């Protein structure tokens, strides 16, 4: 879960910054202190990502003074953007935007003595309505396509909330053992999937599901994934970017 700690940037105390490009760690001296060296920042320089993409800062060494490291993190698009900071290890700090990043905008990141800049796409948002059994995609705030869908059945409900797309796969093998269901169980499966977007590391995807087309738009029959018809799944795969948000609700 994300920490409730919010970022604070004191711009007046930064003495120097180093742009990323070579991947080398950078450091900055603040008074008598040296801010922790940053090894990398993602998204990387020049990358285009979705409007819910987090920023991940990896430090060259374990960070002992986390509060100090957090003070020198700033994410902005002109003005500083509000976000939440959370540590996912002793060398890794993640900044998650409060709401969505502005679309088609350059986003700059300063972390200690390192800085980089990436860009957001047009803003591809999706809403999975588990009661209506629909998956609605908007681009730049305008509805582009509403598709029949099938989500998690009772006992395997799709989690609610907003999730950024983590990965995309043109083809993938879905193995029930990865979510704790043996293949010899009545609910077990091992199937080849297509046009898949990962929403959670625990195994929730949006993907093509020709086997559930008859239920899409009418009933929730999956093990937690969002099932789409093959043509719809292909269109979404070709449209969505890493970091674009999917909101799931009843």
What features would you describe in this structure?
The protein is mainly beta. The protein folds into two domains: 38-120, Immunoglobulin-like (Sandwich); 124-248, L,D-transpeptidase catalytic domain-like (Beta Barrel). 6% of the residues lie in helices and 42% in strands. The strands form five sheets. Strands 1, 5, 7, 8, 11 and 12 form a six-stranded mixed sheet that branches. A hairpin with a 2-residue loop joins strand 9 (83-89) and strand 10 (92-97). The radius of gyration is 20 Å and the shape is globular. The model is unreliable at 1-17 (pLDDT under 50).
Brief overview:
By secondary structure, the protein is mainly beta. It folds into two domains: 38-120, Immunoglobulin-like, CATH 2.60.40; 124-248, L,D-transpeptidase catalytic domain-like. It has helices at residues 66-71, 230-239, and strands spanning 18-19, 29-30, 33-34, 38-42, 48-49, 55-59, 73-77, 79-80, 83-89, 92-97, 106-111, 114-120, 124-129, 134-139, 142-148, 161-164, 167-175, 190-198, 205-208, 226-228, 245-249.
Key words describing this protein structure:
250 residues, Immunoglobulin-like, 2 helices, 6-stranded mixed beta sheet, single chain, 6% helix, 5-stranded mixed beta sheet, mainly beta, L,D-transpeptidase catalytic domain-like
> In sequence order, what are the helices and strands, one letter per element?
EEEEEEHEEEEEEEEEEEEEEHE
Per CATH, which architecture of the largest domain? Beta Barrel
Q: Which consecutive residue ranges, at least 5 long each, have pLDDT under 50?
A: 1-17
Gyration radius (Cα, Å) is 20 Å
CA(first)-CA(last) distance: 22 Å
Roughly what is the average pLDDT, rounded to an integer?
89
What is the number of helices? 2
The H-level CATH homologous superfamily of the largest domain, spelled out, is L,D-transpeptidase catalytic domain-like
Helix content: under 10%
CATH class of the largest domain: Mainly Beta
The strand count comes to: 21
Please tell me what the overall shape is. globular
Structural class given helices, strands, pairing? mainly beta
* Percent of residues in β-strands: 35-45%
What is the name of the CATH topology of the largest domain?
L,D-transpeptidase catalytic domain-like
As for the number of domains, it is 2
Largest sheet: 6 strands, mixed
């Amino acid at each position: 879960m994300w920490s409730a700690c919010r970022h604070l940037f004191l711009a007046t105390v930064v003495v120097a910054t180093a742009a990323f490009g070579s991947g080398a760690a950078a450091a900055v001296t603040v008074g008598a202190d040296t801010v922790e060296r940053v090894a990398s920042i993602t998204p990387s320089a020049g990358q285009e990502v979705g409007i819910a993409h987090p920023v991940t800062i990896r430090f060259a060494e374990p960070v002992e003074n986390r509060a100090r490291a957090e003070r020198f993190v700033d994410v902005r698009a002109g003005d500083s953007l509000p976000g939440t900071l959370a540590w996912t290890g002793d060398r890794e700090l993640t900044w998650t935007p409060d709401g969505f990043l502005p679309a088609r905008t350059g986003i700059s990141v300063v972390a200690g003595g390192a800085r980089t800049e990436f860009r957001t796409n047009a803003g591809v948002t999706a809403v999975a309505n588990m009661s209506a059994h629909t998956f609605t995609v908007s681009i730049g705030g305008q509805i582009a396509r509403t598709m029949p869908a099938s989500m998690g059945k009772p006992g395997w409900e799709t989690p609610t909330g907003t999730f950024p797309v983590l990965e995309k796969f043109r083809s993938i093998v879905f193995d029930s053992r990865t979510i704790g269901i043996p293949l010899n169980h009545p609910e077990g499966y091992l199937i080849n999937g297509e046009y898949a977007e990962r929403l959670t590391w625990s195994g929730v995807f949006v993907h093509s599901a020709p086997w559930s087309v008859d239920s899409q738009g009418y009933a929730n029959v999956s093990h937690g994934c969002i099932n789409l018809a093959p043509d719809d799944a292909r269109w979404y795969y070709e449209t969505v970017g890493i970091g674009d948000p999917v909101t799931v609700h009843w």
